[in-house]
UniProtKB/TrEMBL annotation:
The lineage of its organism: Eukaryota, Viridiplantae, Streptophyta, Embryophyta, Tracheophyta. GO terms for molecular function: DNA binding; DNA topoisomerase type I (single strand cut, ATP-independent) activity. GO terms for cellular component: chromosome; nucleolus. It is found in: Nucleus. The active site is at residue 574. One of its GO terms (biological process) is DNA topological change. It comes from Linum tenue. This is DNA topoisomerase I. InterPro entries: DNA_brk_join_enz, DNA_topo_DNA_db_N_dom1, DNA_topo_DNA_db_N_dom2, TopoI, TopoI_C_dom, TopoI_cat_a-hlx-sub_euk, TopoI_cat_a/b-sub_euk, TopoI_cat_euk. Residues 47-56 have a biased composition (Basic residues).
Length: 615
DNA sequence: CGACGCTACTCCGCATTGCAACG
DNA sequence: CCGTTGCAATGCGGAGTAGCGTC
């Protein structure tokens, strides 16, 4: 440990070696994963080669990109910092009286005040963490000794007023401000990678604030301090000018020229200094597009291996070796394949307590005879995964045995972790890891659904088919969203509308009968006398009323159906865009009906796909 | 470990909707 | 009276953000 050489000097030779390596030849990578046990797949590959805009540069195979040069020249302008804190002159009350604070102390107070109507204010952990950090900034001997004695309402009200002012601004004023911001930011928005102008993803440094973790995060409420230029490392081409530091008198932490990585800048996360925040190119850049394509190609490759993989793990369900690892791997792989679970890395105590496949606890699964398993756990982002599934009997038995003799809080797969699991998967297929199954399952489901369910009809009907398939994928991946605050009132309003429309319909039917006999219509619910109408006119009205009811009822079911399902996440991250593009081409659906502007940009690489493309 | 992918949330512009006034 | 227009309320979805996972 202590005998570490001066590792800083080691990096230079490494970097220059890579430079050399990269410039010596255009293609040093071997196609190590080209042994595809399937002629069809090979044909597809050659077909794409002709058209793909990456065909020249896509020699890098998935999973073999480590140490590879990602770019040759890189020019960019660094990052932009959030504006400095402007004192608003509003004081908090301490024991009922306004109190003077330093700008720094006041900034933290403001962060707290503006979170008033979030539910974090109800969480003791949040209050405790905030108070600890704030007290540190106030100093131990500060007059303020208790959070409870502080009243933040003046700042809160000031903040509300500011928000109101902003709302009241005319569209012209808003536009002018936006324009100005754009002008300031313009130069940061772009990077020039190998001579090509590409969009930068996140060139704005994260502003200071109070940490808002997802779920029961142990660090919620902690102060996320302001990031300064001295925190930031810049990565840029050797020959490119070093971006000028935007804050006078300060300077960057370090300038690097590492062409094996794609980040333009990074800083340490102030909440967890062991972690990093990176500035990357935008999703629409070809660098990201290329790796996106590689991701889907890897998932497609799994299609050719999946049969054997399934056969292998099915065989291992009953494996009763001395070493239980094999059997656990088999069951874990089965779950990842069948349920699209995440791998489940171990987590720190300092993070929210969530689990994935390898970290499932005994209490997260319940065996319901004869062969049902109930899953209930908090996954990524503390989103609850609740699902009862029928499993093959050997799996049911195995899970029961993994549970046996363990406490509720112990690991179900005690002999397993993600690195063991992934190491095993890599033996089955080059580059295979747990997450590939999610991509594979999502995309293959879409592909199949679209092929099976699309019928003749108008564009709107086909779009509904797509959305249904998309929804199915979102459910598989457990992509959720919180029910909107107004959902209940929306539903209520819809039911009211349906009710009145039905009432109207009823009256119309009576009126129709009466009109046929030449009698005048009855008085309406409001007591008003209605006009005499011909039976034909009434029938017309009946038809339109019926249509209205139908529409409202449709609206309501889809709204209720999708209230907790988020379709966007899978569209952006899991569904091979070529499936969608090909489907649109085959069925003459304008691609814009499915992909918005940013998706079209992100998936530019997929647009020239063959209409007969299958995932 | 460091680098990258994934994910839900917020905010805001804009289209849609419902309703009243109007011709 | 009925269809059109104008207007405000509503809500949808795109863009951006920052935190969460994977490998």
């Amino acid at each position: 440990m202590s005998t570490k050489p001066n590792h800083l000097s080691e990096k230079k030779p490494l970097a220059s070696k890579l430079q050399q390596n990269g410039s010596s030849t255009s293609n040093t990578n071997k196609m190590k994963t080209s042994v595809v046990p399937n002629k069809k797949a090979n044909m597809k590959n050659t077909k794409q080669m002709k058209k793909s805009k990456f065909s020249k540069s896509t020699k890098v195979q998935p999973g073999s990109t480590d140490g590879q040069r990602k770019w040759t020249t890189l020019v960019h302008s660094g990052v932009i910092f959030p504006p400095p804190y402007q004192p608003h002159g509003v004081k908090i009350l301490y024991k009922g009286k306004p109190i003077d604070l330093t700008p720094e102390q006041e900034e933290v107070a403001t962060m707290y005040a503006v979170m008033k109507d979030t539910d974090y204010m109800q969480k003791p952990k949040f209050l405790e963490n905030f108070w600890n950090d704030w007290r540190r900034i106030l100093g131990r001997n500060h007059v303020i000794q208790k959070l409870d004695d502080c009243d933040f309402t003046p700042i809160y009200e000031w903040h509300q007023q500011e928000k109101e002012k902003k709302k009241q601004m005319s569209t012209e004023e808003k536009k002018a401000i936006k324009e100005q911001k754009m002008q300031q930011e313009e130069k940061y928005m772009w990077a020039i990678v190998d001579g090509v102008k590409e969009k930068v993803g996140n060139f704005r440094v994260e502003p200071p604030g109070l940490f808002r973790g997802r779920g029961e995060h142990p660090k919620m409420g902690k102060l996320k301090r302001r990031i300064r230029p001295r925190d930031i490392t810049i990565n840029i081409g050797k020959d490119a000018p070093v971006p000028e530091c935007p804050i006078a008198g300060e300077s960057w932490k370090e300038i690097k020229h590492d062409s094996t990585v794609t980040w333009l800048a990074f800083w340490n996360d102030p909440i967890n200094p062991k972690e990093f925040k990176y500035v990357f190119l935008a999703a629409s850049s070809s660098l990201k597009g290329q790796s996106d394509k590689e991701k889907y190609e890897k998932a497609r490759m799994l299609k050719d291996y999946i049969h054997n993989i399934r056969a292998a793990y099915t065989k291992d369900f009953n494996n009763k070796d001395k070493d239980p690892t094999k059997r656990q791997i088999a069951v874990a792989t089965y779950l990842i394949d069948k349920l699209a679970l995440r791998a489940g890395n171990e987590k720190d105590e300092e993070e929210a307590d969530t689990v994935g496949c390898c970290t499932l606890k005994v209490s997260n699964v319940e065996c319901i005879p004869p062969n049902m398993i109930k899953f209930d756990f908090l996954g990524k982002d503390s989103i609850r995964y609740e699902n009862t599934v029928e499993v093959e009997l050997p799996v049911f038995k195995a899970i029961g045995q993994f549970q046996a003799g363990k406490g509720e809080n112990e690991l179900l797969f005690n002999a397993l972790d993600t690195s063991k699991l992934n190491a095993h998967l890599k033996e089955l297929m080059p580059g295979l890891t747990a997450k590939v199954f999610r991509t594979y399952n999502a995309s293959i489901t879409l592909d199949q659904q679209l092929y099976e369910e699309t019928e003749e009809g108008d564009v709107a009907e086909k779009v509904v088919v797509y959305q249904k398939a998309n929804k199915q994928v979102a459910i598989i991946c457990n992509h959720q969203r919180t029910v909107s605050k107004t959902h209940d009132s929306q539903i209520l309003r819809l039911t009211e509308r349906i009710e009145t429309a039905k009432q109207e319909l009823k009256e119309l039917k009576i009126d129709l009968e009466r009109a046929k006999k030449g009698k005048p219509p009855l008085k309406g619910a409001d007591g008003k006398q209605k006009r005499n109408l011909s039976p034909e006119a009434i029938e017309k009205k009946i038809a339109s009323a019926k249509q209205k009811i139908e529409k409202y009822e449709m609206d309501m079911t889809t709204k209720e159906d999708l209230k907790t399902v988020a379709l966007g996440t899978s569209k952006i991250n899991y569904l091979d865009p070529r499936i969608t593009v090909a489907w649109c081409k085959r069925h003459e659906v304008p691609i814009e009906k499915i992909f918005n502007k940013s998706l079209l940009a992100k998936f530019a690489w997929a647009m020239d796909v063959d209409p007969e493309f299958r995932f």
